[in-house]
Amino acid sequence: MSVVLKRPIVPRLAWACAAGLAVAAAGGLTAGSDEQAETAFPVPKGLPEVPCPDDNPLSEGKIRLGKQLYFDPRLSRDETVSCATCHDPAKGWSNSDAVATGVGGKKGGRSAPTIINSAYSRFQFWDGRAASLEEQALGPIANPIEMAMNLDEVVERIKGVEGYRKQFEECFGEEGVTEENIARAIAAYERTILSGDAPFDRFKAGDKEALSEAAQRGMKIFFGKGQCSSCHTGPNFTDNSFHNVGVGMDRDEPDFGRETISSLGGDRGSFKTPTLREIARTAPYMHDGSLKTLEDVVEHYVKGGVENPFLDEAIFPLNLTDQEKQDLVTFLKEGLSSDSYPEHEAPELPK
User: Fold this and answer.
1) Which pairs with CB-CB distance under 8 Å and at least 24 residues apart come from 290-295?
2) What is the CATH number of domain 199-335?
3) At the topology level of CATH, where does 13-190 sit?
């Protein structure tokens, strides 16, 4: 279900989150003399600078505020569901279920996509209905089967928490708590949830011991015979586009995906290409969570997806041996899983 926001935020992007954005493998936020000044933070090796809206530069205080909001169930109608409920750091920043569950046990029709490296996505949600992380942040809050809150009510609830009021004033001045600033804070935090510096990155940088022989064979399949990089390309292993790979198209009432947003018949059954970073942590797979393992995913593509009139031209049967399939899965699991995975814990919430 898509939600139309009262005042959608579609900011123009600048191709760095802050002046002097640091590119490093590890470390914490670098605070300047003014806590609310623009903040540089480390980007793991293998990833580019993080795009950021001109009107939402990062600051240490804003990121801290956004993290609190992300983990706070008070943003939901019955105060039981937070952003982290469906996008849990312990579960690949997803939820390990086929579909998401909101307030009152209501279930959606799609899986919860990982938040990892969502800062690089040109579109948010499986169907791309949000153009920014700011716009995406408000969608689940207002969705009646997710957090089920009226956005005006959320603002009033947050204003009623003294600790939040003070932080919003520190981060946003007299403007304080607004739905736009709630979105900006959550988005600022989400931009710091990054995964890179994986064995694949170290191997490409010259460390030939970073990948096992099986993973190296799988990497050759990924970029060659397996045709995986036709869609899973670039440092974030996604083309940021939409494709019909046949999943669910053999059902009586298939999910039309991107077509519901674009109104273009050619987009029927197309969904956003997800990142493959930390893919071993984010099962089950596909927009409907219908494929339980990476082995299942590989078999889906080897057979050429599910035939339908809108099947993407990049999907066709692949002649992979059992060993090649096994090596490909090894590369996905071993090569794209980072030792510096962002294992965030819930912060203490304001009162």
Assistant:
1) 290/98, 290/247, 290/248, 291/247, 294/329, 294/332, 294/333, 295/325, 295/329
2) 1.10.760.10
3) Cytochrome Bc1 Complex; Chain D, domain 2 (1.10.760)
Here the tokens at position 139 are: 């969608």
Rounded-to-integer distance, Cα 39 and Cα 2, Å: 33
Q: Which two tokens stand for residue 6?
A: 């009262």
| Joined tokens for residue 323 | 């060993």
Which three-class secondary structure state does DSSP give residue 328? helix
Of residues 38, 135, 146, 324, which has the active-site annotation? 146
Backbone phi, then psi, for 218, in 5-degree steps?
Answer: -65, -35
**Residue 184: exposed, middle, or buried by beta-carbon count in 10 A (0-12, 13-18, 19+)?**
buried
Cis peptide before 42 (omega within 30 of 0): no
**Predicted confidence pLDDT, tens digits, the chain (351 residues):** 333 333 333 333 444 564 333 332 233 343 333 344 555 678 999 999 999 999 999 999 999 999 999 999 999 999 999 999 999 999 999 999 999 999 999 999 999 999 999 999 999 999 999 999 999 999 999 999 999 999 999 999 999 999 999 999 999 999 999 999 999 999 999 999 999 999 999 999 999 999 999 999 999 999 999 999 999 999 999 999 999 999 999 999 999 999 999 999 999 999 999 999 999 999 999 999 999 999 999 999 999 999 999 999 999 999 999 999 999 999 999 999 999 999 999 999 999
The label of the residue with tokens 């609190």 reads 68
Report the alpha-carbon distance of residue 309 to residue 91 in Å, rounded: 35
One fold for both 13-190 and 199-335?
A: yes
Examine the residue annotation and report whether 146 is marked as an active-site residue of this protein: yes
Q: Rounded to whole angstroms, how far apart are CA atoms 59 and 43?
A: 15
Non-local CB neighbours of 160 within 8 Å, separated by 6+ positions: none
Q: Measured between alpha carbons, how far is 208 from 199 in angstroms, rounded to an integer?
A: 10
Domain coordinates of the chain in residue numbers? 13-190, 199-335
Long-range CB contact pairs, 99-102, < 8 A, 24+: 99/288, 99/289, 100/146, 102/76, 102/140, 102/143, 102/145, 102/146, 102/147, 102/148
